[in-house]
Structure formats: C-alpha cells, structure tokens
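Design request, tokens follow.
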C-alpha cells in the first residue's frame, strides 16, 4: 500500500469532519473518493497532506507514520496535492509556473522534468510562453496537474479538477489521469464530481457520506449498488 489511514478522525480546530476512516490506496492505482457535497472528501485529502487536524488514528505512507509531519515534509517524501481551489500564477507564463512548481530541482532535473511533462501534455508546449491567465479552463487544469507533477511525486492527490469544464474536456482531463498512472507510474487519489467517468477510470473507490466510509471496493460494484442511487444520483 502506498498510503493508508488507520482509524483516522480529523477535522478543523474542534470540528470533527471525518470519523474512523480506514483506507488503503494500492500502489500505482487510481483510487476515487466520491460522495455528496460536504461529505469530507477534501478534508480526507487535506488530512493526507497535513492540512487538517488529526484527533485520532494514524496516516501511513509506505509504512512510515506521517501523521504529525508538516506538509513540506510530506511533499519531500513524494506526495503532491492539486487542491480544489488550485493556484496557478496568472501573471506568469506557463513555463514560469512550471519552474516555480519545480523549485526543488536543479537545472538539469528541471529540464528533464519539463520534457516529461510536455510529452504528457503536448498542448502545454504550444503556449509555454503565454501568460497562464490567458489559458482556457481546461488548459488551466492541465497546468495545475502539470505543476503537481513537477515535483516528481509518487502519489498525486487531485481534488475536483474537472469542475465547470465541458463534458468533452472532462473526458480529456480524466484521460490524462490514466496516462499519469500508466506512463509516470504515479499513484493517483482522485476526488471527482463526474462520478460515472471517475468510476470508469478507477481501480478502487471509496464512498464517503457524512464523514464516514459507506463503501469500499470495486467501482463497478458501487455503480450497480443501491448506494449509488441514494448518494450519487446514478
Ligand atoms: N477549513 C475549514 N474549517 C472549518 N470547517 C471546514 C473547513 N473546510 C471544510 N470544513 C467543513 O468540513 C465539512 C466537510 O467539508 P469538505 O470540504 O471536506 O467536503 P467535500 O466532500 O469536499 O465537499 P464538496 O463536494 O462540496 O467539495 C463541511 O461541513 C465544511 O464546512
Ligand atoms: Mg471538496
């Protein structure tokens, strides 16, 4: 397992959002986290990245207990996070955004990394020297994901990267998620509102409802279950 939690309860300040969460994210898989608004999906990613308060339980990364590690330390271990309100620098070019995201790399690594990323997102190459603020919604998502990948992570946390995109662009963005897993061998944890499409590309799924796990397992099984009707509107 790359990432797992053991009896995790977490939230913010005194507020408990997640209760007794046990997840295990298999290496080199896409694992989807789905559930209604406010279920705690973002909080789960925040917890994995060190941005929430842990009240009970543990978070393990490759068997190492990272529960008390600061975010930068988790980043160094190989976890990257593209948050729901992702940040790109609109006034800077696409290239400059990538360089900032790769600040830990030396010159040679930086060039290699950018080459790998442009291989994966050929479109970014076409507007490498345009200001990021001029990109379309879909292109911005690609850039945000590319910035996450600049750190050469082993695990990539993606929070609703397809919000507000047209269906055809959603498909494109989610297809790159498959490439990220297959070509870069990165383990992906995907929070998605386009549930049907997310289930299609996932190896495993967790359904989160009111801060608790209601389903764990095969995406097909969830899709065909009563739970999908009740909580996901499928
Ligand atoms: N920084 C914060 N401080 C206090 N409470 C928060 C914070 N972030 C989220 N919450 C609360 O935690 C609960 C779960 O929120 P969370 O963002 O994890 O849900 P979600 O499943 O990601 O929802 P959505 O699908 O709308 O993104 C909500 O009640 C929310 O108001
Ligand atoms: Mg959220």
């Amino acid at each position: 397992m790359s990432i797992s939690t053991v009896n995790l309860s977490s939230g913010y300040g005194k507020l408990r959002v997640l209760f007794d969460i046990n997840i295990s994210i298999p290496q080199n898989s896409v694992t989807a986290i789905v559930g209604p608004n406010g279920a705690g999906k973002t909080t789960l990613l925040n917890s994995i990245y060190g941005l929430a308060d842990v009240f009970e339980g543990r978070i393990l990364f490759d068997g190492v207990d990272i529960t008390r590690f600061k975010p930068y330390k988790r980043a160094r271990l190989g976890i990257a996070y593209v948050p729901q309100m992702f940040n790109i620098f609109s006034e800077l070019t696409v290239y400059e955004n990538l360089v900032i995201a790769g600040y830990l790399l030396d010159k040679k690594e930086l060039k290699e990394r950018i080459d790998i990323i442009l291989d994966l997102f050929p479109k970014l190459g076409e507007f490498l020297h345009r200001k990021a603020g001029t990109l379309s919604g879909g292109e911005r998502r690609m850039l945000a994901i590319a910035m996450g990948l600049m750190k050469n992570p082993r695990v990539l946390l993606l929070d609703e990267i397809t919000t507000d995109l047209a269906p055809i662009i959603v498909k494109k963005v989610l297809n790159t998620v498959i490439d990220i897993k297959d070509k870069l061998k990165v383990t992906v944890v995907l929070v998605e509102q386009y549930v049907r499409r997310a289930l299609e590309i996932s190896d495993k799924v967790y359904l989160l409802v009111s801060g608790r796990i209601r389903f764990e397992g095969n995406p097909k099984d969830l899709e065909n279950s009563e739970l999908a009707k009740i909580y996901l509107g499928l």
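Comment from the thread starter after seeing the answer: thanks! DSSP finds ten helices and eleven strands in the chain.
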